[in-house]
Write a structure and sequence with these properties.
Number of strands of chain A: 12
Mean pLDDT of chain A: 94
Order of helices and strands of chain A: EHEEHEHEHEHEHEHEEHEHEHH
Oligomer: homotetramer
Strand order of the largest sheet of chain A: 3-2-1-4-5-6
Low-confidence stretches of chain A: none
Radius of gyration of chain A: 22 Å
Strand content of chain A: 15-25%
Distance between the termini of chain A: 22 Å
Number of helices of chain A: 11
Chain lengths: 289, 289, 289, 289
Amino acid sequence: MNSGYGAFAIIGGDKRQLFCARSLSDDGYAVTLGGFDSIAEMKNIELTTPFEAALMSDTIILPLPCLNSKGQIPDPFSKDNISLTDDLITAMKGKRIFCGMQTRLSEYCPKLTGRVFDYYEREEFAVYNAQATAEGALEVAMQTFEGTIHGSECLVCGYGRIGKVLTSMLRSLGAKVTVSARKPSDLAWIELAGAKAVRTDELYKLGEFNIIFNTVPAKIFTPILLAKIAMNAVVIDLASGEGGVDKYAAERMGITHIHALSLPGKAAPKTAGEIIKNTIYHILEEDDR
Amino acid sequence: MNSGYGAFAIIGGDKRQLFCARSLSDDGYAVTLGGFDSIAEMKNIELTTPFEAALMSDTIILPLPCLNSKGQIPDPFSKDNISLTDDLITAMKGKRIFCGMQTRLSEYCPKLTGRVFDYYEREEFAVYNAQATAEGALEVAMQTFEGTIHGSECLVCGYGRIGKVLTSMLRSLGAKVTVSARKPSDLAWIELAGAKAVRTDELYKLGEFNIIFNTVPAKIFTPILLAKIAMNAVVIDLASGEGGVDKYAAERMGITHIHALSLPGKAAPKTAGEIIKNTIYHILEEDDR
Amino acid sequence: MNSGYGAFAIIGGDKRQLFCARSLSDDGYAVTLGGFDSIAEMKNIELTTPFEAALMSDTIILPLPCLNSKGQIPDPFSKDNISLTDDLITAMKGKRIFCGMQTRLSEYCPKLTGRVFDYYEREEFAVYNAQATAEGALEVAMQTFEGTIHGSECLVCGYGRIGKVLTSMLRSLGAKVTVSARKPSDLAWIELAGAKAVRTDELYKLGEFNIIFNTVPAKIFTPILLAKIAMNAVVIDLASGEGGVDKYAAERMGITHIHALSLPGKAAPKTAGEIIKNTIYHILEEDDR
Amino acid sequence: MNSGYGAFAIIGGDKRQLFCARSLSDDGYAVTLGGFDSIAEMKNIELTTPFEAALMSDTIILPLPCLNSKGQIPDPFSKDNISLTDDLITAMKGKRIFCGMQTRLSEYCPKLTGRVFDYYEREEFAVYNAQATAEGALEVAMQTFEGTIHGSECLVCGYGRIGKVLTSMLRSLGAKVTVSARKPSDLAWIELAGAKAVRTDELYKLGEFNIIFNTVPAKIFTPILLAKIAMNAVVIDLASGEGGVDKYAAERMGITHIHALSLPGKAAPKTAGEIIKNTIYHILEEDDR
């Protein structure tokens, strides 16, 4: 039994948390799952109530996001979400708590102070998550586009983390890739990555694409731009919130359009769970140093 | 209107033939579709009966395979498949005929001699098709495996055309790739491709994989080998005929197992149709030289 | 004749400036070279004195650095460097002046104000220059190391611009690459790039390397670290100033050690000159907008 | 001490044989060098005469080629080459002998029959050697061309082993690569490798290149073709024998032209020696099976 960081409780969450539990257990840690009622058994892992799980552990892992808009811990593997009862809060107190989107915890549960860490805020989490997101986007593109990625005309709008990974993937699969960005230094990096660089405000000068990936959370894909470059394209919008595509226009124009959110959890929950685990390890290492 | 090679008729076939027609028409050729009853209209392309399509054309394109086991032209876009009536044969005579698997045509229709060409037999067709097959296999893997390809342990069994393309794709997406082959020179190429090379008869010495791709049409994946390396793997069998995996054993052992055949037509009919068109162009060029 | 940005004068500088002139002239611009006495002729380009070149042009390009430590324009293609005489300054006044390291110009020639631009300060210049530097470093490694890059054990110390490009190059040539950095997010990017990531303060835990590239301008390679990982390595130090390697120790220990500075100008003056030209174009475009 | 294959003698040869000896010794084998008079000492390796080395060993390794045109073993590390005296032949008899270009041995020394193996004839040797050759060619290109490989226009003539590896290297460094071949299936593979494919007999239709690599041992580069595509190019001829470039024409036309032969031994003797060793291991494994 690995006791380096003590016993872990995983309370609430979707498949990612299950894979996180699996991976912690495979590393030799004692792991207790709290609130996964619909699961009958899991090798080497104890299943119990959130309260007991919290009691039995040194470190508690909450999902991403840790609380929904009603202040409950999301629990898709149970009939109901988990409420932060006083008992549960008492059982959690003084322990190391890892969660995604800590501000929600602070809002709904200001008493829970102390050793609370937000794995979602770590930059390496964002980097690995971008990788999983880009692969999920590639999967969506493969399923939707009727040709191969190889030889297809692809546009990646935005050259942040996801745009970078996606550009590299598409290039290495043999697509012809154009990437839009605003900064001259980004345009330089794009060219070095083997893609065609274009300023975002000159997208309308381009021709038609087969697949368009948007990563920019701003309404760049107006009806005019869609008419110019997207009439025969599959448009995959990865931007959070409202996305960057005028959905109603896209629909009216008969353009295949997918707003693909939370891809890591959907397309690769195993990897997404391992990313959570590894980020928690990093935080624990730094905390111990 | 491009009249380089005259007018084309496409008689029978699935989505690939539709995309082949689309692409020929976009190149400026007159194209007539024969036997696609369930399609109402297609821009710039005439829809009619197989007999009339044959009459109106200089060059006739039959699907892959050109005839099913009953000697009919497969026609999924119609209620019935197309019979090779004497009228149809007469209308086809003396014209250039392109088909896949010409031996079936020779068997059922020995009268149809002369300028008959088999695009499926061309080696460049096989190369491009291997690319589309490998991408289709990657898509299946992405859909089935719960982690990302990046970081996954992959095995590619066989280093022929498909194995080569698949290895390169998986490597460039960041998988850890092992490839099995028999010839020392293939093992050398595998290492140069950045993968781990292993002799096929030593596969049983390896550990567990996440994703296994088989391309070898021989029963390599016996229960013993499956138990050794595939217990937690997704197994994707690309070998034709009976495949290379003991399906019953795989099922009994609870191993996720997919026999994925005819991937280009299923996963990328647009590209598959364009491959047919380009191969026909090559043959026409050589025939004219 | 391209008159978009008027006539150019290139005053002083090494081969990079000649290739910059060549490339401007090939784009259709009138180009005059000032101070390249040892060159007899150059197709479509006029050769004259710095003063006349300045007089004849709308835009003046000075080298990188624009002035040496004595306040003169470096002029390796002439017997003497070029002095900033009052005549020359008068001829330059009011024109667009492009230079590298503008602060030196401000120091020695405070009168020359107005439309002076520093191409060396632009981030896209730094990005492209990093590419040329990394390729130059690869060339040095190939010349010095007695094996192939393929299969060699390489260490890249630092993951800034040069480190990023170098890592990608080495990986794609089949080297086994370890990269050191400090930030967890950099370590994540390094892993995504297919290299082994290691914290800079844990370099001493590693084994021996064949080739070591240093990009960090701090004395990381102490005798102790050299003894641990570099005894049989070629060490290529790309860090500016004093570099990151204890040279005296490396020499005493018999370690092959090269402090490779100003690689773009030495290894690829043609590309280095074109980078200067393209950066100037970017600045001119923005200035006009 | 590794005694798997007994004691090795390395008789004659250049730096490659020294690195082969080094690598055998590092694997734990007893190694004796015969005929390397100018070398004073080598860690863990005995230096002696060819006769004594042969006597002391179970397995004898001769260089590539094993005999020069006078029937002597090439011995650049000695004043004279090594003659196959009767004594030496007697000492070698009955032992396993590895050599490059066995036909020369059969010609000059027909008595030496039995367990003689030619590592140079093995296909995996040719594959690994192609890798080392391609890297050597890249090194020559980097030294000679005044720009970066990235962004340069490269032509690779021929798509055999060396052409394949070179194409992949150049592409991954960001060059724009055109490759010529004759077979339609090779043209298909070239396109899949991300390069532009052109039929060898249509090379004259192309524009100018920066760097041209020839791998075809036929006089393809006539004055007419050189005038069309090579006036500003660096031409690196890798074809054996007379090469594929009209040297006199290239010289007259002022085209930079390098006939680069035996690159593995020159550019990467360490790797070349290890390739010899690994091929010998493969032969020994098969011989034992």
